[in-house]
Write a structure and sequence with these properties.
about 170 residues; mainly alpha; 4 helices
Length: about 170
């Protein structure tokens, strides 16, 4: 019988949940509360346009923001299902440090991938739709890198190095 412990299911679940939760922070904080960084704000502006265009652009942005929230909800739900499966396995350790690190890793991956694709490749929106948007976009990417590094450090500095060859759980 192989009693070797495996953190990978916990890391995968936490990373998936971090992607979803990072998206929720982005959508709730930036899109809804601060009312910028909407999905198509660079293509369909909501400032300096006539009232009819404003209404249409707001409806379209709201729809795409809704699809964005569907994505973040699905990522979070899949992460919860993965976590449920992971903690039911006897060979998966219950490590808060590894789990929190995985959440940070996922959130950072979300910020980095979303920022590169939407801000720099597709140019469908920026953090702010102002002349100085590049600085804010770079800060957003930097937050992604910082969260990834924090997550990596938390995971790899966990004192329970249970998925290393030669380690066997106590029986």
């Amino acid at each position: 019988m192989n009693n070797r412990m495996n953190r990978r299911p916990l890391i995968s679940a936490g990373t998936m949940m971090g992607i979803g939760m990072g998206g929720f922070v982005d959508g709730i904080l930036f899109h809804q509360l601060l009312q910028f960084h909407n999905m198509l704000s660079a293509k369909l502006p909501v400032r300096d346009v006539d009232m009819r265009t404003l209404a249409i652009n707001l409806e379209i942005n709201m729809f795409w923001d809704g699809l964005f929230h569907v994505f973040t909800w699905i990522m979070t739900a899949v992460g919860i299902a993965m976590l449920w499966h992971a903690v039911r396995q006897e060979n998966v350790p219950r490590s808060t440090r590894t789990f929190v690190g995985s959440l940070s890793l996922g959130w950072g991956l979300f910020n980095l991938v979303e920022g590169v694709i939407d801000h720099h490749i597709l140019h469908i929106h920026h953090v702010t739709e102002t002349s100085g948007h590049l600085l804010w976009d770079l800060i957003f990417l930097g937050s992604g890198v910082a969260l990834i590094l924090l997550g990596w450090w938390l995971i790899h500095s966990d004192p329970i190095k249970v998925d290393q060859p030669g380690y066997h759980a106590e029986t």
